[in-house]
Design a protein that fits this description.
transmembrane, two-stranded antiparallel ribbon, transmembrane helix, 13 helices, mainly alpha
């Protein structure tokens, strides 16, 4: 059996996860709270029956808030056992209700997440494909920039590319922090200043004193994002100028060391490229595809009396146009035939009137 490198890595990872148990995180950290833990261990009826009366009274006083007067009224041990068992049962039932509530909450959240994933699966798949393409384009561009800096031996360009890469990581961190801040809180979010703008306070009057004045928009992340984009644009422009200067320096050094034959060959290649561009530009000019006879004025269509060109032709059998040497067929159409028939009727009426 032939195993690829990716399959071997996946198999090793599966074996590690199979034999190694970790408790770094749980699925309940994302969809709900942990199960509630009981404050004290509850006792069953059999365990309460084995206790002495003094221990039962002490437990009722410490854990369940019984006063000395209430305990003094209970004289029989059976009543003490029933009282303690009842209090322990209440604690146990309360704990079970809390567990059921948490489990129900987890089940509802899990069901909603599954429904959203199933409904939005095409959108998620498309988003994954778009992200994959953008990642490939970004990595190819950065690889090309690094390779270009290495070819030109531009240390300033290398520094600029490194700074732009760091800024890209910071922008991705800021974007992820802004998106996740709508649904969760974390200390690992991008540190942004709080610059709230509250329109209600600017309006004055009763609106400024109403609860609506407390609502506002935090423009701190926007200001940080704008500042990072501005710095990125400046660094990119500076890096481009540095690479351009390095390219010009390298090109000038190469021209200083070339011979007369190499210079003549370079000029010949430049002239050939110019001629090729001119030829391609001339080929892009659109040419007419109509027959040449159609471009000439038609002076042959005249009536029998020679009073000028006829407004229309009454001959419909020859569905061709052009000269005698070249005949170009016209497209046949039912609507065209009906129009010509109506035209014949009108022409015959005019002939009868004459």
């Amino acid at each position: 059996m032939n195993f690829s490198f990716k399959k071997v890595i996946r198999l090793l990872l599966a074996l590690v996860l199979l034999f190694e148990t970790t408790y770094a995180w749980e699925w309940s950290d994302f969809i709900g709270s942990h199960l509630p833990s009981p404050v004290v261990a509850t006792l069953s009826l059999e365990e309460v029956s084995d206790l002495r009366a003094r221990d039962i009274k002490r437990r009722l006083a410490r854990n369940h808030g019984y006063s000395a007067e209430e305990l003094a009224r209970i004289l029989d041990k059976k009543e003490l056992i029933h009282a303690l068992a009842f209090e322990e049962e209440k604690i146990r039932l309360k704990y079970e209700d809390e567990v059921k509530r948490v489990l129900l909450k987890r089940g509802i959240i899990t069901a909603i997440l599954l429904v959203l994933v199933i409904v939005c699966w095409p959108l998620l798949q498309h988003a994954y494909e778009v992200a994959s393409v953008n990642f490939v384009v970004y990595t190819d561009r950065k690889r090309h920039e690094a390779h270009r800096c290495w070819e030109l031996k531009s240390y300033a360009g290398m520094v600029g590319c490194t700074i732009m890469f760091v800024l890209d990581l910071m922008q991705a961190w800021l974007t992820a922090s802004i998106l996740l801040s709508w649904v969760m809180r974390s200390r690992y979010f991008f540190p942004t200043p709080s610059l709230p703008i509250k329109p209600g306070q600017l309006m004055g009057g009763e609106i400024a004193r109403s609860p609506m004045a407390n609502y506002g928009l935090n423009v701190g992340p926007m200001a940080v994002s704008w500042g990072m984009r501005f710095v990125y644009g400046r660094i990119e422009s500076w890096t481009g100028r540095a690479l351009s200067r390095a390219h010009q320096t390298q090109r000038r050094a190469a021209r200083d060391n070339e011979s007369e034959q190499e210079r003549a060959a370079r000029k010949a290649r430049k002239q050939a490229r110019r001629e090729e561009r001119e030829r391609q530009a001339a080929m892009r000019v659109p040419t007419s595809t109509l027959p040449p006879d159609w471009m000439q004025p038609n002076n042959n269509d005249s009536d029998e009396r020679g009073e000028g060109p006829a407004p229309f032709s009454t001959v419909h059998n020859d569905h061709t146009v052009g000269s005698e040497d070249k005949q170009y067929p016209l497209p046949s159409s039912k609507e065209h035939e009906e129009f010509l028939e109506q035209l014949d009727c009108h022409v015959s009426e005019f002939d009868e009137l004459d």
